[in-house]
Amino acid sequence: MEQQAEIQYEGLEENKEYEDIINKVVKECFEHEGINKLKLYISITLTVPDFIRKANKKYRNIDKETDVLSFPMFQKEEIEQLKENNYEVEDVLGDLIISIPRVKEQAEEYGHSFERELAYMVVHGFYHLMGYDHIEESDKKVMRKKEDEILNKLGITRD
């Protein structure tokens, strides 16, 4: 199997546990959306609050820390065309930047495991890369349903 997630670290030590969680979630996301046969991958940077704050300011003009940033490379319609045509050229689906300290804080705040929170950040970011958002309530319901399907299939619950 080709690697579907390219993981980098910025301000953090490499961590096999993080990589195992991410690779498991990304694999399921790709299979669930029928893009596992395409030569696409996600570039994921695991980082610290200051780095993600600077990236948020630079790319979104928002000077604050956040948990995950998503930078899609395709429009939703383009992804559908890639699926229909069995796109053969290796390309990045998009980039995710995830704040690991923020993941730890939120896992504690929401009363669930680190694995669950990191998995959620990855699946949430994945669906942004696929062209989904949660601005409108109707869109939010669609996105949340897809996120829950992935996490439930993997047995990664809020418990």
Short précis:
The protein is α/β, with parallel strands linked by helices and 159 residues long. The chain has helices at residues 16-32, 49-60, 76-85, 100-110, 114-129, 137-153; strands at 5-10, 40-47, 68-72, 91-99.
What key attributes describe this structure?
single chain, 159 residues, alpha/beta, Collagenase (Catalytic Domain), 4-stranded mixed sheet, 6 helices, 4 strands
Structural topology:
Layout: E1 5-10, H1 16-32, E2 40-47, H2 49-60, E3 68-72, H3 76-85, E4 91-99, H4 100-110, H5 114-129, H6 137-153
Parallel strand pairs: 1-2, 2-4
Antiparallel strand pairs: 3-4
Q: Can you walk me through this structure?
A:
The chain has a single domain, classed as 3-Layer(aba) Sandwich (Collagenase (Catalytic Domain)), CATH 3.40.390.30. It has 159 residues and is of the alpha/beta class. Strand 1, helix 1 and strand 2 form a beta-alpha-beta unit. Strands 1-2-4-3 form a 4-stranded mixed beta sheet. The model has no long low-confidence stretch (mean pLDDT 92). Helix 1 packs across helix 5 and helix 5 packs across helix 6. The chain is 52% helix and 18% strand.
